[in-house]
Amino acid sequence: MNKAITEGLLLTPPPFANGLDVYSSGDGTPGSDTYENSPNGVFVPADQDFGGALEVLKITGTQRVRYMGQTPLLPGCYLRITVRVKAISGNFPSVRISGYPARGDGSIATGVSTFGPTSPLNTYGEVVELSAIVGVAPRRGVDLAWGTEPVYGHFGVEFIGQNGGIIRVDDFEIEDITSVFLRDMLSMVDVQDYGAIGDGNTDNTAAFEAANAAANGRTVFVPSGVYRLTGDVTFDTPVKFEGRVSMPANAQLLLRRNFDLPNYIEAFEDEELAFLKAFQALLNNSDHESLDMGGRKVWVRGPLDMRSAVPDQASYATRRMIRNGQLEAAPSAAWDTDVVTSAATYTPNDPRRLSNVVNVANVPVGALVEGTGVGREVYVWSKNNATQEVTLNQPLYDAAGTQNFTFRKFKYLIDFSGFSQLSKFGMADVEFQCNSRCSGVMLAPSGSTFQLRDCFVSRPLDRGITSHGEGDQGMFIERCQFLSAEEPQIVSQRSSIALNANANDIKLRNNRATQFRHFAMLCGQNNIITGNHFFQGDSVGNGIRSAGLILTQTHSSSIVSSNYVDNCFIEWTNEHDPSPAFTGGFSFSSLGIVDNIFLSGDVAPWFRRLYT
């Protein structure tokens, strides 16, 4: 790229032979003294080395020769100023290229260097060639890195040191040498050319936005370094990251043209952080309905709090998907289950509430509740520290009075529980590799139509999918594999559960689950469970078996069809009824179990395929 060629810019000043009225002995600005009719400057028409030359007598501490014309400074353009000089007589000064960095109003831009390297003159008649490069970014080889504030410059040379010497100066040469610095200006825009500095401290938000605005379809290039961004940055053009960016949690990076996880990993050089920042962009913009993980594996060091990635979004109800990748739990103490024991009071008349909870602030929302009269898969839905109350996702039974409850907060690879509501969200073709260290997915406390499709939930420590509220309304779990971490253990020693749900209209279709304590516990109505294979056997002779599917609504209004119920059974219970003796209304009705395969081996003689 050469602006003199592509845009016809006149960069090189006119020769001294054309007149000295455009050459200043000051800073080069309009009104400064010139060498026209100056007592210490004269044009020499025939110099043996230079042809025409300006002969200067040094009479001031810094004797300048500056071109008064405005040499434009453009982002992405690098100029080299070249001058040849020689000492003729008298004292020897030192010489250097210098310039005046001018703002648009002509005032000087401060905080930048105004001169290049200094060279001494120590031999009469010896030609010394000087050059200096000026541009926006402090690249290697750039002598005058002026940033984006100056829009033009007055360039020339200046002599420092002893006075009394006579020096001759050849005509100035200013040329565009951008091609030396930029890899391919026809297809790339470098953020450094718009003022970006990769020192980890400078705020580069404006520079990144300026580069995006100038790209016009070309690729934006982020060279090596750490680029701090304090605000939102959107790229409407492809971006290539050689360096990395850092930004606060509430600032967004949107890569519209290459919105996928591999590019966010390049941007942040941290897989876990990149995943959260990409999720943030997914929820805060309408350009993309899904985040493609590009087949990448994200090494996760602790629970991914998805709400923390979008601090401005307490709830979300627009269709979004995450697909095509793997999340794998790394060794970390962050996966350890939090266990809290507190005394609390339960009243059957208020069946989903614990009151007078001791140290309620320590009770984690989303924790599994254990105690006398507590059924399976009862969780802390919410809590109120001021009133010392805990709201449960299901009622207790035969638990009236005050007792000690144990609250176990499992840790999850993906945790949506920080949202107040999350609807129309799904994950597809994702493997949750829990590695017996953690659980899989914790749903939001409310919301509808969460979807998990064609996913693997592999070796969860405690749970595959947990709903601690009603964020599972209308949930779809389809064509997923749930692979237990407890396969080597006999049935009676297993404790992990593939999934639970509390709300209505759950669809479990064409899934496969192996050797959990239970496959699914559904506590709502109007469910469709079809085409699933859940296997829970072991090789113990006359061995016990556990429930594969548990339904806790007595008026179930559900269909269980075309499943392969393998070495387990279906259990229909009322354990979440605060008055289990009640038999009125629709007690134990409206359940269809049709066209299923029941297979059992090595089971105890009292084994049954349906328990109520």
Describe the protein's architecture and organization.
Helices cover 6% and strands 41% of the residues. It is mainly beta and 612 residues long. It has 4 domains: 178 residues, Galactose-binding domain-like (Jelly Rolls, Sandwich), CATH 2.60.120; 107 residues, no CATH class; 72 residues; 200 residues, no CATH class. It has a 16-stranded parallel sheet that branches. A 9-stranded parallel sheet has the order 24-33-36-40-44-47-50-53-56, with no helix packed on it. The longest helix is centred in the middle third of the chain and has 14 residues. The model has no long low-confidence stretch (mean pLDDT 94).
* Contiguous uncertain segments of 5+ residues: none
Residue-averaged pLDDT, rounded? 94
- Sheet with most strands: 16 strands, parallel
Q: Into how many domains do the coordinates divide?
A: 4
Q: How many angstroms separate the termini?
A: 80 Å
List the total number of helices: 4
Assign a percent range to the helix content. Answer: under 10%
Structure class: mainly beta
Percent range for β-strand residues: 35-45%
What general form does the structure show?
rod-shaped
- Describe the oligomeric state of these chains in a short phrase: single chain
User: How many beta-strand segments?
Assistant: 56
Instruction: Give the radius of gyration.
Output: 37 Å
